[in-house]
Design goal:
- This is Ribosome recycling factor domain-containing protein.
- The chain has three domains: 42 residues; 99 residues, Ribosome-recycling factor (Topoisomerase I, Chain A, domain 4, Orthogonal Bundle); 71 residues, Gyrase A, domain 2.
- The strands form two sheets. A four-stranded antiparallel sheet has the order 3-4-6-5. A two-stranded antiparallel ribbon has the order 1-2.
- The chain is α+β, with helices and mostly antiparallel strands.
- The chain contains five helices and six strands; from the N terminus they run H-H-E-E-E-E-H-E-E-H-H.
Length: 253
């Protein structure tokens, strides 16, 4: 009985070892696939600067560079991360624009200042929805309530917020045609601010490129064209975000 038992345990251990190796191999394959997918997302196929056809195509497609990226004095991955950051900032700002019933995230952009500290309104108290047009902020103490109320007034989200001790009541404007037009205009201003920041990123990158010695004229030209393509790619995405937001504001579901 004992030898047979030991033999069975040996078979079990061998099976567990093979299964573990199988799992590790699959994890390595998945990691490789993820890295490949990320690289493909960073360099989408298509000609530089050419806009895609059809709705929801993601704007201008970004092709692969025609030069050795290691020779480029501008860190392209870091540059694209900065552009992504600008898109994310615009997305966060658009989340604070009302297109239908009120939600707590309409107050995400409100920053409260107390002494040397600045923090989100959601950290000053609990934000809740009272009805389809009213938000309630319940703060923790009178000092925080005062600072939070001043932040709401300064943010100009609603015309007449009301403070009652620790509670702030925010009556949002009715979604009239005139109000929607004003909000679309505000969204457009946010877009232009984002595009200006993107143009600054491009300008800084081009200055860095032109200030580098030892590059051939062809390489410099190809690199600057690619910097332009990066800018075009992300500006097109920002434009598309605005078009979608403006449509949601003007034509709520």
């Amino acid at each position: 009985m004992a030898p047979a038992l030991f033999q069975s345990w040996a078979l079990v251990n061998e099976f567990l070892l093979l299964f573990a190796l199988y799992r590790l191999n699959n994890m390595a394959v998945l990691a490789t696939m993820a890295a490949t997918s990320q690289q493909q997302l960073r360099f989408k196929g298509g000609k530089k600067g050419k806009k895609s056809s059809g709705k929801g195509g993601g704007g201008a497609k970004l092709g692969r560079p025609t030069f050795e990226t290691e020779r480029c004095p501008v860190p392209l991955d870091a540059l694209q991360d900065k552009y992504h950051g600008q898109l994310q900032h615009l997305l966060n700002e658009y989340a604070t624009i009302r297109t239908g019933e009120v939600t707590p995230n309409l107050l995400d952009g409100v920053k409260v200042k107390m002494g040397d500290a600045t923090f989100a309104l959601s950290q000053a108290g609990m934000v809740s929805v009272k009805n389809t047009d009213t938000l309630i902020v319940t703060t923790f103490d009178s000092d925080t309530a005062k600072a939070a109320y001043e932040a709401v007034v300064d943010a100009n989200i609603a015309p007449n917020p009301v403070r009652d001790d620790l509670v702030i009541r925010i009556q949002m404007p009715k979604l009239t045609k005139e109000y929607r037009e004003q909000v679309v205009k505000r969204a457009k201003e946010m877009l232009e601010q984002t595009k200006n920041k993107m143009r600054h990123l491009r300008s800084h990158a081009v200055s860095q490129l032109k200030g580098t010695e030892g590059l051939s004229e062809d390489d410099t030209h190809a690199m600057q064209e690619y910097l332009d393509a990066i800018n075009t790619h992300f500006v097109a995405q920002a434009d598309e975000m605005y078009e979608k937001k403006a449509d949601h504001i003007s034509n709520p579901q």
